[in-house]
Amino acid sequence: MPNTHSARALGDAHLTQFVRDGYVRIDDAFPTTLADECRTILWHDTGCDPDNRDTWTKPVIRLGFYGQPPFRMAANTTVLHHAYDQLVGSGRWLPPGGLGTFPIRFPSPDDPGDTGWHVDVSFGLENPDFMAWRANIVSHGRALLMLFLLSDVSKHDAPTRIRAGSHRDIARILAPHGEAGLSLGELAANGFAESAHRPEVLATGRVGTVYLCHPFLVHSAQPHRGSLPRFMAQPPLLPTSDLRLASSDSDCSPVELAIKLALTEAN
Questions:
Q1: How far, in Å, CA of 199 to CA of 209, rounded?
Q2: Is residue 19, in this structure, part of any structural domain at all?
C-alpha cells in the first residue's frame, strides 16, 4: 500500500477543503482507456445500443457491482491509493474489488424518480427495507463516498449535486445517537432541511475524474438534460475499522477531524 510520506496525491489546500466542504476532486485519477473498456461492458448490460437513441427509453438504468479488471484497475490507481491514505489513513481502508453501483442516466424529459437529497447509509443492509439502513457517528461500514466519472459530465449531463459542508450538519445529527445511529428514514424525516442552507456544487468533470467525499455528505441525483448518457460509479471505500473520534486531532484522519470539528463549532 502506498506510503503518504513518500507520495502525496493531495496538497494541504485539498485536505483543508475536504475537512471544510466534505469532498475533493481529483482530475485524471484513472486512464480514459479504462473508462472506455468499462463503458463497453456497461453498454452491453444496459440492453441499449449506443448508436441508436430509440433504445434509450428509460431516464436511468441501474447496474450493480463490477469486478472485472478494468473496473478494479480504475479504482486502484496509484494516485487514488495515495489519496485514500491521506483522507482515511494508511492501513485503514480495503482496496476496492471493483466499481459499483452504476446509475446510468440517459437524456430524458421524464422524472427519474430518485432525485431526493440523501446520505449514503452504510450498515444494517441486510434489512429488505432500504429506508431502515443506518449510519452512525463512527461511520460503521464506510470510509468514503466516491464518485467515478466514466464519461464526460457537464452541468447538463445530470451531475450529482453536492451540498458543500453538509457533512458537518449530519455529524451533529448523528452524534447523540451513538453506535446505534439513525436509519435513512429517520435522517430523511425532514428532507435534510438542516443542510438546505449549504452551497450547492455540481460534480462535473472530464472522464477519469473522481470525487472523494466524506461519508456524511448530503447529495442528490438530478434529471439528465444533456445529449449523451452519463456513466458514473458511486462505490464506497470500505474501512478496516470504525472511525476513532477519541484520538487527538494530530492523530486524526481528515475524515475524523471533520467530524470532531463539526461537533465543536456553530452552524
A1: 21
A2: no
